[in-house]
Amino acid sequence: MSAKAEHYDVIRKPVITEKATMASENGAVVFEVAIDSNKPQIKEAVEALFGVKVKAVNTTVTKGKVKRFRGQMGKRKDVKKAYVTLEEGNTIDVSTGL
Amino acid sequence: MQVTETLNEGLKRAYELMVTAQELDDKVNEKLLEAQPEIEMKGFRKGKVPMALLKKQFGQRLLGEAMQETIDAAMNSHFEESGDRPAMQPEVKMTNEDWKEGDDVNVEMSYERLPDIPEVDLASISLERMVVKADDASVDEALTSLAENAKDFKAREEGAAAEDGDQVVFDFVGKVDGEAFDGGSAEDYPLVLGSGQFIPGFEEQLVGAKAGEEKDVTVTFPEEYQAEHLAGKEAVFTCTVKEVKQPVAAELDDELAKKFGSEDLESLKGQIRERLEAEYAGAARAVLKRGLLDKLDELVSFDLPPSLVDAEAKQIAHQLWHDEHPEVHDHNHEGIEPTEEHTKLAERRVRLGLLLAELGQKAEVEVTDAEMTQAIMNQARQYPGQERQFFEFVQQNAQMQQQLRAPIFEDKVIDYVCELAKVEEKEVSKDELEKAVEALDDDA
User: Fold this and answer.
1) Fewest beta carbons within 10 Å, which of A59, B86, B130, B224?
2) pLDDT value for A58
3) Strand (E) positions, B126-283?
4) Bridge partners, A30 (sequence order)
């Protein structure tokens, strides 16, 4: 499957944290994805962009914090994260970039 | 790590070092492991950053460092084993140029080792130390010149004309084109005629003035006068002479001695004598040192590392060239080729330098902190008002410290050698000493 422009819109960036590192030990990769994307789209995008087989996608929306700025209430944007489990034998080196 | 000798000729040595990729990698990992607990990174608690990530981030940078360290360590252990001391920084070169990560590293190292310095039988050296007593004549001479500097001025009798050398106290108002200018007037100004304090022509015109007289002095400011608006202009100074004083040489008595801070004439004389003798002793020491160095130079001979001699010869040539061309202060001139003479001188210097260093080391001559501080203080005095800065500068600058330490060390070694050598004292006159010092200057 060749990569298309919209695939790049779905995947924002990899998440590199302690938790993500732990997930990677079980063959999963964590990405920040577009808030309006869904699991099939994410699966397609990851398969197209990194050339790997995806087993499953779990997503979670982390709500942005409510912050006060000069007395005004404001809200940070929500972030959708996708835990992408890869089929056995597939890996993505998240820190190298595309 | 493999070390193979590729050159062993005279004092020259060359080696080839090989560091395997595995060794380098281990070194990098070791470094990372050491640093890991201290590293903080976004998304991780402190010290919890995984190794793989660290390696990716810092590996490249550490690799260079690790390479440097392994090579340094290899060199150091090599020097320790072989007992060689390099004359200069060893030349280190990587031979495989298209090296990339994961390759073995080949390094070529070449240097000149310091020669083995033969033992010198110091006791076989005999020297003469010149001793000069300050005689009364020279003490008197010094005293007279002191007295001259302490000249007093005494008012001349009324109506007497000022002569050259007299002090004239006067008011003056200077005018250019009929207008007074800034800094061109003063009151009760004491001026010694013939001292050259004022613009040329001014003092001469005051010669012959009498107290109470008014006199116009017309002078032209010199073209290169520092105040630009006055340079080259003609000015008229209206001078009112108030007093004319003639110089009186201070008499050699207790009064004079008190002026210089001693109790009476005798003690002043004693001070002068001490100072003169210290001066003579310093000069005699220089002569003695020279003689000693000559002797040592004759006594020993060993191979010299050519790179040191070359460097020294160039330095000498460069120095001499600058002495001959005082107008050039920067380094924007052509390279100067040292002549044979320079090389010879350089050889002597290098040989003696090495020898003295060796002797000092064997005798465990050390420069103490107190002596160091003393030397720094002496230097600092040359920069009045900035002693503190100088002090700090030296403290931070290892090279400067070295520069100050070297002469002290040399002196101490010389002292040490003099103790061992036979030194005869010989009383000579001042003239003979002077001659010896001059001879020393001539061929230095």
Assistant:
1) B224
2) 93
3) 126-131, 152-155, 167-176, 179-192, 214-220, 234-248
4) A83
The count of residues in chain A is 98
Nearest 5°: CA angle at B379, between B374 and B382?
A: 135
Could you tell me the domains of chain B?
A: 2-112 (3.30.70.1050), 152-248 (3.10.50.40), 280-443 (1.10.3120.10)
Mean pLDDT value of segment B166-195:
73
Select the residue from B36, B39, B41, B44 to test the A interface by mutation, using most A Cβ atoms within 10 A.
B44
Scanning B150-260, the segments in alpha helix (DSSP H) are 202-206, 254-259
Question: Are the C-beta atoms of B3 and B77 separated by less than 8 Å?
Answer: no
All residues of chain A having their beta carbon less than 8 Å from the beta carbon of residue B44 are 17-18, 21
Say what the pTM is. 0.46
Percent of chain B exceeding pLDDT 90 equals 0
**pLDDT score of B402:** 72
Given A15, A18, A20, which is nearest B48 (Cβ)? A18
Considering only CB atoms, which residues of chain A are within 8 Å of chain B?
A: 15-18, 20-21, 95
Tokens of B369: 């902190």
Closest CA to A62 of A45, A78, A46: A78
Kind and range of the H or E element at B380?
helix B369-380
Summarised one tens digit per residue, pLDDT across range A41-77 is 989 888 888 888 889 999 999 999 999 888 888 899 9
Does ipTM exceed 0.90? no
Q: How far apart are alpha carbons A70 and B83 in whole angstroms?
A: 73
- Residue to mutate among A15, A18, A19, with most B CBs inside 10 A, is A18
Give the distance from residue B46's alpha carbon to the nearest chain A alpha carbon, in angstroms. 11
- Does B53 sit within 8 Å of A21, measured CB to CB? yes
Searching chain B, which residue's CA lies closest to the CA of residue A25? B50
With an 8 Å Cβ cutoff, are A16 and B56 in contact?
no
